[in-house]
Amino acid sequence: MELTQLWFILVAFFFVGYFVLDGFDFGVGMALPLLSRDDTDRRVVINTIGPVWDLNETWVIVAGAVLFAAFPEWYASLFSGMYLPLLLILLALIARGVSFEFRHQRKHPEWKRAFDRMIIVGSLAPAFLWGMIFTGVVQGLPMTADHDVRAGLTDIVNPYTLLGAVTVTLLCLVHGAVFIALKTDGAIRTRARRLAAGAGLPAAAAAVGLLVWTLLEHRDAALAGPALVVGVLAGIALVGGLAANLVGREGLAFTGLAVTMAAAISTLFLVLFPTVLPSTSGVGTLTIDNASSTDYTLGVMLWVAAITTPLVIGYQIWTYWVFRRRLTREHIAAAAH
């Protein structure tokens, strides 16, 4: 396997990890007003991701750094063509992170409500915009022969990218609701399972529509066959996860949604390969060969990744193990005294 191919797989791996982990983070934030009846409920919901949200978010930083180092032309064209949505994502993530840290600093209800709204918007906006960006990359952007992007609003916002945005948003909401059900007990757990079931049907419909549209548009892609297989796997995992949620098997449900998210994002990367950013203007298409760094750079980075990636994954697993217990309203009440 060539280094460029290996690094394309690694870029996909880090983005898949980000969507699986920060995806349910976004879902928890979006579910905050739907599951909470009072401030104690809201604290329970927020505390389900309190110990892990920042670690989950580091995956996008690593993914961006890997993209920049391994495929600088891809990174430059992507960030120039998608500058506005990426900037909005950054601002939303900043507001969301600040809210987690500042919400509890004052007991005034208006103070808390203001930061709750920031958590909700800071979770909804990135999920929606990431879906738009990734489907926009798969669809392609108008570029010059020098790989300069000449994208207008309709190149970024159109029916296909809007369907991608809605699909990712709904999948994150279901993923987050299942995680809340896995991490809580009592009334919140019951409401979270109902939310996952209710949002599951439109999420499945949107996901099937996006999969069919994507595969039809890219039926001549080099890996169209594997993309179809992985896409079908995403559908099976989603159905299995929703079924497990209905019978109260939250662990299986969460696993099913994690596989769904991973397979869905993997499908988008599979239909791209070996292209990394198609050009809709006939020239300037970026591939793993003309967008990559030198073999020496890729080789050095490979050693770094081989050492650091297992450490990051191991630390993440340990963190989730330490904070594995379910949360209840009683825990919040006990912590207040």
TrEMBL record:
<keyword id="KW-1133">Transmembrane helix</keyword>
<dbReference type="Pfam" id="PF02322">
    <property type="entry name" value="Cyt_bd_oxida_II"/>
</dbReference>
<comment type="similarity">
    <text>Belongs to the cytochrome ubiquinol oxidase subunit 2 family.</text>
</comment>
<protein>
    <submittedName>
        <fullName>Cytochrome d ubiquinol oxidase subunit II</fullName>
    </submittedName>
</protein>
<feature type="transmembrane region" description="Helical">
    <location>
        <begin position="296"/>
        <end position="323"/>
    </location>
</feature>
<keyword id="KW-0813">Transport</keyword>
<keyword id="KW-0408">Iron</keyword>
<keyword id="KW-0349">Heme</keyword>
<keyword id="KW-1003">Cell membrane</keyword>
<keyword id="KW-0249">Electron transport</keyword>
<keyword id="KW-0479">Metal-binding</keyword>
<feature type="transmembrane region" description="Helical">
    <location>
        <begin position="6"/>
        <end position="32"/>
    </location>
</feature>
<feature type="transmembrane region" description="Helical">
    <location>
        <begin position="222"/>
        <end position="244"/>
    </location>
</feature>
<feature type="transmembrane region" description="Helical">
    <location>
        <begin position="74"/>
        <end position="98"/>
    </location>
</feature>
<feature type="transmembrane region" description="Helical">
    <location>
        <begin position="194"/>
        <end position="216"/>
    </location>
</feature>
<keyword id="KW-0472">Membrane</keyword>
<feature type="transmembrane region" description="Helical">
    <location>
        <begin position="251"/>
        <end position="276"/>
    </location>
</feature>
<feature type="transmembrane region" description="Helical">
    <location>
        <begin position="161"/>
        <end position="182"/>
    </location>
</feature>
<keyword id="KW-0812">Transmembrane</keyword>
<dbReference type="InterPro" id="IPR003317">
    <property type="entry name" value="Cyt-d_oxidase_su2"/>
</dbReference>
<feature type="transmembrane region" description="Helical">
    <location>
        <begin position="119"/>
        <end position="141"/>
    </location>
</feature>
